[in-house]
Design goal:
This protein is an all-alpha fold and about 220 residues long. The protein is about 65% helix and about 0% strand. Helix 1 crosses helix 2, helix 6 packs across helix 8 and helix 8 runs antiparallel to helix 9. The longest helix has 26 residues.
């Protein structure tokens, strides 16, 4: 049998890594972070346990990569769903809805992810995060930004803040209110993206209420 080519080996490594990332998402969703071990993740992925430490320096880094992959895949699917569009405002609306939707669909996973970022380990740079960043930057550019280097980090910070507000134990902010605030910030009509249903908070269809007078 002839040895595998470099490209085949690379594809096998990519698939192995992705199985570990997907298993991490599933298990943390089901059991929580503390109750999920690296051995559990390797078993769910059908991988040798040593592969986890080969690809990732620790469980926290593995989790962040897994969440960034989930965000990237979810955002990518939202941007290319039918009907396809090149409208930058619609694409930005879809991006906002995709990230807020993840917080609603995966609260345990996203809450754990946010807690990890706020700890000493901070923000992990990884291939999954870089792909997510490139997609968000492209969305900002297609929205019409003239200064992507400034506007992309601002959008990222606003989305992270909104996710944190949705997930804050005991005093979560309503999804619709946060969406309204973000849509107002970017001048987006409520009907764009995937509206959560009903009227925008405090307004009529197609209108995002002006909150400036209510801010301190």
């Amino acid at each position: 049998m002839s040895p595998r080519s470099a490209s085949v080996n690379e594809e096998l490594r990519r698939r192995s890594r992705e199985r570990l990332l997907q298993a991490t998402v599933e298990l943390v969703d089901e059991r929580g972070y503390e109750a999920t071990t690296l051995g559990d993740i390797a078993d769910r992925a059908g991988s040798a346990r040593g592969l986890v430490s080969y690809y990732f320096p620790g469980k926290r880094q593995l989790l962040q990569s897994a969440v960034h992959r989930l965000m990237h895949l979810t955002l990518e699917a939202a941007l290319v769903r039918e009907p396809r569009t090149d409208d930058g405002r619609e694409l930005l609306a879809r991006a906002i809805d995709a990230i807020l939707g993840l917080a609603a669909d995966h609260p345990v996973l996203l809450r754990t992810h946010m807690a990890g970022i706020l700890q000493a380990d901070g923000f992990v740079q990884c291939p999954e995060q870089q792909r997510l960043a490139a997609l968000l930057r492209d969305t900002v550019e297609r929205y019409g930004s003239r200064d992507v280097d400034t506007d992309y980090p601002l959008l990222r910070a606003l989305l992270m803040g909104a996710v944190f507000a949705v997930l804050l134990p005991g005093v979560p902010m309503p999804h619709a209110r946060l969406r309204a605030e973000l849509f107002q910030r970017y001048g987006l009509d409520w009907e764009l993206g995937v509206p959560p249903g009903g009227l925008p908070p405090g307004g009529a269809p197609g209108h995002i209420p002006d909150q400036s007078s209510k801010r301190p």
